[in-house]
Write a structure and sequence with these properties.
The protein is mostly beta strands. The chain is built from 1 helix and 9 strands; from the N terminus they run E-E-E-E-E-H-E-E-E-E. Keywords: Ribonucleoprotein, Ribosomal protein, RNA-binding, rRNA-binding.
């Protein structure tokens, strides 16, 4: 059994035991969150109806907070001496899917 869930502005395919990285959520490590299911596949049975998916819950446990890779933004204008350097690391959260209940 697996589900397609909306997590952090993206859609992820998850099954029980999967560890995935999503955008930061304001939950401490060890606590659980619910992910919104968009599709549920159980063997040959595929559920995509919104009324039936309202009864489905996908639970995940927050493992840790993380940061994405460092990216560097450079701005440069020719012949004027203008240079600007900026960096960014996206805050992320690592979660482990604990249950898919239909």
């Amino acid at each position: 059994m697996y589900a397609i869930v909306r997590a952090g502005g993206r859609q992820e395919k998850v099954s029980v035991g999967d560890v995935l990285i999503i955008d930061k959520v304001a939950v401490k490590a060890g606590e659980s969150i619910d992910l919104a299911p968009l599709l549920l596949v159980d063997g040959d049975k595929v559920t995509s109806d919104a009324a039936k998916l309202a009864k489905v819950s996908v639970k995940a446990e927050v493992v840790e907070s993380a940061k994405g890779p460092k990216i560097t933004i450079m701005k440069y204008k020719n012949k004027t001496g203008y240079r600007k350097r900026q960096g960014h690391r996206q805050p992320l959260t690592r979660v482990k899917v604990t249950a898919i209940e239909a």
